[in-house]
Amino acid sequence: MITRLLVANRGEIARRIFRTCRELGIATVAVHSDPDAGAPHVREADTAVRLPGAAPGDTYLRADLIVRAALDAGADAVHPGYGFLSENAEFARAVVDAGLTWIGPPAEAIAAMGSKTEAKRLMAAAGVPVLSVGPEPTEADLPLLVKAAAGGGGRGMRVVHALADLPEALTAARAEAAHAFGSDEVFCEPYLPSGRHVEVQLMADRHGTVLAVGDRDCSLQRRHQKVIEEAPAPGLPEELRTELHAAAVAAARAIGYEGAGTAEFLLAPDGRFFFLEMNTRLQVEHPVTEAVTGLDLVALQLAVAEGEKLPDLAPATVGCAIEARLYAEDPARDWQPATGTLHRLELAAPYQEFEGRGVRLDAGIEDGGEITVHYDAMLAKVIAWAPTRAAAARRLADALSRARIHGPATNRDLLVRSLRHPAFLAERLHTGFLTEHGGELTAPDSGSTELAALVAALADAAGRRTALPSGWRNLPSQPQVKRYRAADGGESEVRYRLTRDGLLADGHSGTVLVAAAPEEVTLLVDGLRQTFRVAAYGAEVYVDGPRGAVALTALERFPDPAAQVAPGSLLAPMPGTVVRIAAKAGDSVTAGQPLLWLEAMKMEHRITAPADGLLTTLHVTPGDQVTPGAVLAVIEPAA
């Protein structure tokens, strides 16, 4: 029997595992890096052990430190969660060799699936269909997908549409794979731009039982990373669903699998399917399977590790569940990651009351927490269940749209628009969905920004009035002026006056002020009554209203000249580490040409030349740490 469990992970998944442990009466141990010292998962554990340092390579990826932490804390079992060391066979062996119970498959099974090339060979031998190309790809094989043999999460992957681009793609994929996974082995496979990503949840025990516990569709992806997942996979003929489940079970049996795992397949438009990989761990998207089956997959993992036998049959699925991953990133700016303080993350009531079948929030961060460059950009997962797929999509979109999310940019608007998109509701799903519909999913709503700026100015004025001494009066003839910058960089100037006849605001002739307070403003906009909630954190202002949420930054009326940078300066859009440089001072560059790559939040981000010109100065070298707004280079525009 497991009595004290260490979770070799952080954030949302550590909290998720701890929740099941509390229900089962199992004591918990957390590990944490220095930036995570005050994180929720640390506070919620019975015991916490510090891993000195900040970077994952010094902390959460140090198998020796984690095993020592488990022994020092008196743990008798280790759960790896997902990511980090969860699919590291050597870590699994080290845990077992230390006399601890490993919550996962045997190390041999992890090793067998650890290399995608070896996994494909094993699956082909087991009769599971796989995608493959010859050692020398030809025009007939295009388009191709270059993939890292080790690791995952979209890293070390490049799409190639022309054979002439293959050498550059191979070089780039190898460099990223070596940096991310310690191995530069890559391979090519056919790329199906209109294929679907369908996976099967597996549970297996040491008594020979292997269950296919439902399936999921994870086709909505960006940069080969999942964004929206759902269970069951919609629109599958029952015969095809049965074949997928049988192939997944065969894959598990071929490697002597135990515990929770996922067999991932690419489903072609003609109904053929191909094995992609097997994730030998719990998946990020496991809550949708829990919602439709009523199972606690973490509890089943623990039961299997304790030697219990699984039931002979998996439960039937009931209804539909959809999960949206809330990322700290800006989809409109090439998915640029965002860091900073998350002031508030709050689902609107009554959604917070639901667990499993309703709306569920799994978050790794709380109000006031810091989003850092060291870890993945995922803030939380929001999961909705309903009797039908359309109802689940509507419930999830509504929960997200009403949520108050104050802090760095997120993909919330893209998630809501995706869930409400006619193609999504019509089940026209494929891995290129977000690329195909990206323009309409990320288009700014300038009208809502202008109105939000007016609301912010009125709330600010209301706050100032409550702070002024009695008898004070502003000059009625002078308009109030406030300037704000929106998340897309656009600026709005609000000019208004409050008169005996009501609100007079430039550009808002049909707007009537009903009431204004520092945290709430009610307007009549073209005859429609609308209430907005306002929250200010210093210069950051967030306006939540019927048309969505708008983030603004209050600007000084007279900017500080010392804050200006030289013309042509290329600024760092995010904090990160310079990993590669593709140009040097003195080079002539063209608009869109890659100059360097920054690594942030476990992803590489390409920095390109904004215009044609001469690269006169390059201020960084590989390995440099940069902060947002730092000058990376100076480009003299072409004449």
UniProtKB/TrEMBL annotation:
It holds the Pfam family CPSase_L_D2. Residues 97-306 form the ATP-grasp domain. The keyword Flavoprotein does not apply. Residues 1-439 form the Biotin carboxylation domain. InterPro entries: ATP-grasp, ATP_grasp_subdomain_1, BC-like_N, Biotin_BS, Biotin_carboxylase_complex, Biotin_carboxylation_dom, Biotin_COase_C, Biotin_lipoyl. CDD domains: biotinyl_domain. Keywords: ATP-binding, Biotin, Ligase, Nucleotide-binding. Residues 561-636 form the Lipoyl-binding domain. Signal peptide: none annotated. It comes from the Bacteria. Its cofactor is biotin. This is Acetyl/propionyl/methylcrotonyl-CoA carboxylase subunit alpha. It comes from Kitasatospora cinereorecta.
